[in-house]
């Protein structure tokens, strides 16, 4: 243990370093405010710029004037006004579509008038084409269909049930002992009494056999066996981190005292 402790102390000392008192250094990376620039006289600068621009500026050459009879709409100079082109095209397209829709609705209405009237499901198509959907009519129609189906099914079921009831007839040869699915309390109670009596007789016979077997067997003598396992009392748990920290503090205190007591070597 001593060797291990000494090794641990040496390792700890090699790791341990006394904290150095660092002096505050003025860091050169701190923000240094810039010197304020002199204010600009914008009017003065603008005047100077205008004078320079006028000295550079050259008047454009006089171009040949076009005759007044020429206009932009009459002459094609190879340019394409996309905005004007798209607007005209869209108007033409919308006009054609509107005409087609009107013609189609007229044709469809003629067909509807010519055909004989059918179920309300065809009227739904007309609503869809005209751009409207009558949800109330659709829900009512579905409900009516469901009710008609239900009434038909109920009638069929009742007729089937009556037929099955009429076909089942009790035969005269049946006796009280036959099981017809009825629950009779008297028969059940008698059966339970018989079962309990049989169980009591069996238990008596079993006890008589068991007592005979116990009397026949010799009882083994109890020996005080010292080799039996005796569980130890559980020790309290150790907090190793706490113990180590306390030990390190004590060791440091001792080490510092030894260093102070030792005389300094002369150079």
TrEMBL record:
Residues 1-12, 32-53, 232-251 have a biased composition (Basic and acidic residues). Residues 1-65, 208-267 are annotated as: Disordered. Residues 17-26, 211-222, 252-267 have a biased composition (Basic residues). This is Uncharacterized protein. It comes from uncultured marine thaumarchaeote KM3_85_H09.
């Amino acid at each position: 243990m001593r060797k291990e402790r000494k090794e641990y102390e040496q390792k700890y000392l090699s790791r341990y370093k006394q904290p150095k008192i660092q002096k505050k250094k003025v860091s050169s990376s701190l923000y240094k405010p810039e010197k304020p620039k002199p204010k600009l006289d914008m009017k003065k600068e603008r005047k100077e710029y205008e004078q320079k621009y006028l000295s550079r500026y050259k008047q454009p050459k006089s171009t040949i004037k076009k005759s007044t009879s020429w206009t932009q709409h009459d002459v094609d100079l190879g340019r394409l006004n996309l905005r004007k082109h798209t607007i005209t095209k869209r108007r033409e397209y919308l006009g054609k579509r509107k005409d087609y829709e009107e013609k189609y609705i007229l044709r469809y209405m003629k067909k509807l008038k010519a055909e004989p009237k059918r179920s309300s499901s065809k009227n739904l198509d007309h609503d869809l084409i005209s751009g409207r959907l009558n949800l109330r009519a659709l829900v009512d129609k579905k409900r009516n269909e469901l009710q008609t189906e239900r009434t038909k099914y109920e009638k069929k079921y009742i007729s089937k049930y009556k037929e099955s009831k009429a076909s089942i007839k009790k035969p005269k040869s049946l006796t009280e002992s036959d099981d017809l699915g009825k629950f009779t309390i008297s028969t059940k109670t008698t059966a339970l009494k018989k079962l309990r009596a049989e169980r009591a007789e069996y238990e008596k016979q079993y006890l008589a056999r068991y007592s005979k077997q116990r009397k026949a067997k010799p009882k083994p003598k109890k020996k005080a066996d010292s080799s039996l396992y005796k569980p130890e009392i559980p020790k309290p748990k150790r907090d190793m981190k706490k113990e180590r920290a306390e030990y390190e503090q004590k060791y440091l205190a001792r080490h510092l005292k030894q260093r102070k007591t030792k005389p300094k070597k002369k150079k």
